[in-house]
Amino acid sequence: xxxxxxxxxxxxxxxxxxxxxxxxxxxxxxxxxxxxxxxxxxxxxxxxxxxxxxxxxxxxxxxxxxxxxxxxxxxxxxxxxxxxxxxxxxxxxxxxxxxxxxxxxxxxxxxxxxxxxxxxxxxxxxxxxxxxxxxxxxxxxxxxxxxxxxxxxxxxxxxxxx
Length: 162
Fold this sequence. Notes:
Blueprint: E1 2-6, H1 21-32, E2 36-43, E3 48-54, H2 59-80, E4 87-92, E5 95-101, E6 106-112, H3 118-137, E7 151-152, E8 155-156
Helix pairs in contact: 1-3
């Protein structure tokens, strides 16, 4: 049994409640990928935004671990190739953990069984991560790459890459 939920910090009045569309993205993703066992949307600083996790996984702990892995992955990517981070795939004996960038301030982490079709997992999760980035940025439906730089005054802070 899973527990689909939105995390709202009571002590953070300046932060608006997450859009219920985030939960719809997680639920739809689970429906499209056989053997997907859970998912988490976390901020880059490790705060839980939304989740669709099994009851035996603590959502806030998973969000914190995701942020730690994301920080290491960003550093590894920038050191090795000087480019932006897109995703990291961890394969264990009992399944996969894949972390996708969801814009500059969040990530989508998906958990799956070891016999998941990894190609299908990526095929469905990458667009979900882009949709989540758009929802969190308040611009749903706007085409945007997850490695686009943050916007200031409606203009990019870096030159557009091909």
